[in-house]
Fold these 4 entries.
Entry 1:
Amino acid sequence: MPDTTGGPLAGLRILELGHFVAAPFCTRLLGDLGADVIKVEPPGAGDPVRQWGARHKGQSAWWSVHGRNKRCITLDLKKPRAREIVLRLVGESDALVENFRPGQLDRLGFSEAALREARPDLVIARISGYGQDGPQRDRAAFGVIGEAIGGLRHLTNHAPGTTDLPPVRTGISIGDSVAGIYAAFGLMAALWRRDATRHGDGRGRSLDVALTESILSLLEGALPEYGALGTVRQPTGGGIATAAPTNAYRSRDGQWVLIAANSDPLFQKLATLMGRPGMAEEPGYRGNQARCANVAALDAEIGAWTALHEAAELERMLAAADIPATRAYTAADCAADEQFRHRGMVREVEDSTLGPMLHPGIVPLLPDDPGAIRWAGPPVGAHNDEVFGGLLGLSEGEIAKMRQEGVC
């Protein structure tokens, strides 16, 4: 049996009825901090994410991270025997995380009433595109739809009039991942309310996380600005509408270097570094409001200066001047970064199928009880015997019969 001890959430058991990204990301965070996560997948191919991304030795490299610290079992939820097994697992779990479309679990026999009959104080975390109620609850959605409706896809674009290309994606499934983070946060809040020594009430609760709402909650002042002023915040490409200079500037060797010198003292340092110490006192650049109003000209001047220097030299000079700056990291840069390595945010993990793999570390960091990457994403059904036999007490004959009947 894998080591399921260690970490601040050791002793907590989470049942995952999740697929794709949002719910599995939530449970990965909980598993990293020590929770015993039991992931239910369909027999055969398993979670569709197992087929996503670049392949290594014929398998998804992403799965090594996405499925880590989880005990993976297979069950065909359309079969009555599988439903019985799931409800028995519910009885052994503190919480359930799911990201089916609203109502789908009910149709499979897992209504809230059925789940609470199996475990009255169960915490249920539901993640969906639009939420569990409302006029749009039944619409199909993935993370990209949540990002668009939540307002993020509009804001990640280049400035109006600069390109006819589609609005730029962030490059990762951020809508799903943010929803997963909120689900993990909400689940722990519900467990606290249930189990806290002085304040707990012993009750199970359900939480409702929507992809669209998770993204909308991130948009800083965009909504109050519209409500109070009628202004619609527009995309600004690499810059920030409310602070300047903050942008990415091309170096002589073709790399993008981000420079955030958007306070008066920082801008003075940058101007001095550029050999233009008086620039900070020029009328068009004196104070942040003036710099924002003249940001195109300012960025052009900074870009002309950065184009004279290699990226490494720019980083060295800007660091010596204590100006926030860096080249735009690639995955290779992240893997080599000494700070990430020092803090365990880039780790080599032995994957039983793929061999040595690089994994991101555990966030948040709790130095006194940090959790661990106990194992990488396992094969489909790797823990069937362990969970069905060890946890639920089914005999070898019963498990064999389930396999024969296509239940697992």
Entry 2:
Amino acid sequence: MTNVLKIAVGSIVVGLVVLALKLLAWWLTGSVALLSDALESTVNVATAIAALIAIRVAARPADAGHPYGHHKAEFFSAVLEGVMIILAALLIMREAWLGFRNPPELDTPFTGMAINALAGVMNALWCRVLILRGGKLKSPALVADGRHLLTDVITSAAVLLGVALAVVTGWTVLDPLLAGLVGLNILWSGWKLTASSLSGLMDEAVSDETLDLIRAVISDRATGAIEAHDLRTRHAGRVTFIDFHLVVNGQTTVDEAHGICDRIEQSLHAKLPEAQITIHVEPEHMAKHSGVLVL
């Protein structure tokens, strides 16, 4: 089992434990705000399962039907997660409206808050693991799951503060009011996650920082060539696709041109291990005098 899959399985286990704790906190208190927090955790579990499936599909090698691999499967998972976050937000806002019309009396609030706080701490620790490890492993599904958990952590903290204020002041209407604000925050988070994931499905280019790195490697390692132009990039999960035209002197032999290409590819792979690189070699009269000038 790969590191990515192990983390994905861990997300399901952590999600189930946190969900159980939050449901217990809601059952003890009857708080609409704590119920909204628990509803979001049900989405955490569902999306963790979706992420696991997507990661397993993305890890499949290329085949005749998918010659470029299955890497985009993780983007589909991230989009699904965004949609489910939005659905959870709408459910939370519905519960908030019902609670606002008939504010509930809170039972054993401090016990419930303590249990909910424990769940929040677990989420915070796992959120850090997902974002840091997911970024290092270039897994959009894990990073998306981590960002979702981050909103859950912020939500839990806000919920605990709101419930505490409701108990101290006796204003029970604060409980459903806070749940509604939580729903709006989650709705915005889900929209941002969906939009960013869709950009990956649309073959979005790599970041400016990564593009500058690619240009620098080509310029440094393409000794013997004249220029590189029509550089194109896109990313799909952990894989970065790079293709460009490399202009060489008309007297350069095939063997020499191949050696230049090998040198560039090796250096790019050292910086971007999962990169898939395509280089089209052209004679000097095809030069455009733009892009990466080697000489």
Entry 3:
Amino acid sequence: MVAKIFWGEASRTSELKILNRVEEIAKEHESVDGHIPELIWHHTFTNPTSAIREAFGVPGPTTGSHVLYILVFRKFRPITELHGKELFDVWYQCIHVRHIALWKEGVYHRDVSPSNLMWYWKYGKQIGVLNDYDLSSLADEPGPRGNECTGTVPFMALDLLTEEGQRGQVKHLYRHDLESFMWCFAWISLRYKEGVLLPRKLRPFDVWVTLDAVACGDKKFVFQARMEVPASMHKDDPMWKFLEGCFGVLDELDFARRKQRRKADTVEEEEVESGMNDFIAKFTSTRAWAALSNSSP
């Protein structure tokens, strides 16, 4: 078991409520069942930080109050332990089985990062789990969502790492979370070898965690545009070919959106289910994706 103890924003839909909705969806969709966090016990302390400040006579802001939560889960294993075909299979399960199904049902994760991609054994198979819903939102609930900028900076979509994105002027869409999955795969496959973190001189991206959001976005933009092979990998490695294919698609889509923006002052994207399917299909239809998904373990 593992305990998660945190101060959540009182104005946000609680992670507990989101997890309850996720469990309901799992009961309705067999493909989701078994891929959800297993909550064993929970407790919410009813006094928010605003009430505590008031009781002690401590001056403080009237907004931004937090509530203390304790959630106890079944312990899963980190995806960074995996490599090659196993890494791809668990990663894709998190995308295809969990993430898109929940998004279509109105559960928006909005913080895809390697630490939230987990797995476990079941009936001799490795099962992927998308974990951690404290920054998530529900489509039918009031409160922060939509244009609120959330996520872990090194893995956020480039659109959200612009000055406009950081000001909340870019709506957080399904495609942004899917792009985060691509950055996660690059992070894991280029910084780990057979589940072990590479020495500092051989692993890329260390600087990303030290930069502010906009500066990190600039670094990521250069990586996506150049796709220079890092010292830890050969250019003919199937994993590198896969990354080239995925980031090539992202680059093409980014270019098309920039071109569209130049024709209009504002471009409001409408998100529909068919659009989500079309977006992911642009990746799954590439040769690199097919080669890796069909390769032997």
Entry 4:
Amino acid sequence: MTTAPPRTAALDLETLRADFPILGSRIGDSALVYLDSGATSQKPQAVIDAEVSFLTTANSAVHRGAHTLAAEATELYEDARATVAAFLGARPEQLVWTSGATAGLNLVAYAIGNATAGRGGDEARRFALAPGDELVVTETEHHANLIPWQELAFRTGAVLRHIPVRDDGTLDLDTAASIIGERTRIVAFPHVSNVLGIVNPVAELVALAHAAGALAVMDACQSAPHLPLDLPALDVDLAVFSGHKMLGPYGIGGLYGRSDVLEALPPFLTGGSMITTVTLDEASYLPPPQRFEAGTQPVSQAIGLAAAVRYLEAVGMPAVHAHEQVLERRLRDGLRSMPGIRLLGDAAGVERVALSAFDVEGVHAHDVGQFLDARGIAVRVGHHCAQPLHRRFGLTASVRASAALYTTEAEVDVFLDVLSGTRAYFGVGR
């Protein structure tokens, strides 16, 4: 068993929470207890102000004009790229702006499909798939890191395989080693499961992928807001994340890629802003990241995301992680000790983020969610875009509580206290 993490006074939560206007809200007669940060995080005033400031003082299309506003907007936009890339341990040219993680994963899947169709020339040929080639995912995937690979397999004749999850929620690495082999071309996995909260063994998965000559593709949506992250050090080939889960705006996210991978991939979306020369018959494309950024760009959103990153950096990701580890243990211990609660993936001795999904015996997840909401507590209910994982545990839905840097221990205690009365309220327990 792991030992309890030390309590931390590193975060001045009273001051920090004042930066988030929505946290002072009330739901009916109750103070808001927001435990749905795994779905979307709340935004500090600095992020809101950054977007408003751009829109009111520098709004202009980027990379398209020679006038003063256009130059200022372009500089802010590319500075934002550099800021977010550095937060991930990457260089600016290794970060492609997308509308979110889903768009990033579809970009990769369709680019590989284009390579299979012969686009991209000799450099892209390394990504081409043949019938019988294998794409490997895990049983824990969010649908965004599953369905694009299903579709790619359908279009190319490749075979989709999966790494199973054990009863305790950990990945079966023995089976992974047996299925990742000479026909494997892609191994896609989440850094952190959005249902189980477990930090997956990235080093082992990447080693298996690279030993087979396959690309390692990581979904970092549930790790980027909570863990110090260095994507090049993790040795993944490609990784995606979403801004709205890490204090940033909606409609912005990113695709990180090793330079040699991005430089070889053909584009997916095409149009303006990603070309060098166009004739009526053909076009030549810019190098990454612009090659993958066709059309009008999410300028204010990128600037807002950079403000979110600066906020996280000012707080300090080690301090964020330490605080959330206290919350994680408090949340999980409280749920584990509660009669009639079944935690999903309750593995011992593994690293986690402060996110727990559970089933309340005898009460549907949606009823639990309504019961909590009536008392001001916001949680997630449903399959969390992970139907195969829920099916693995014999469920169609669960309740998920997820914390962030602004969550307090007192809020976790309020949640646990109210949840403890759920079964009695519905007449199925004491």
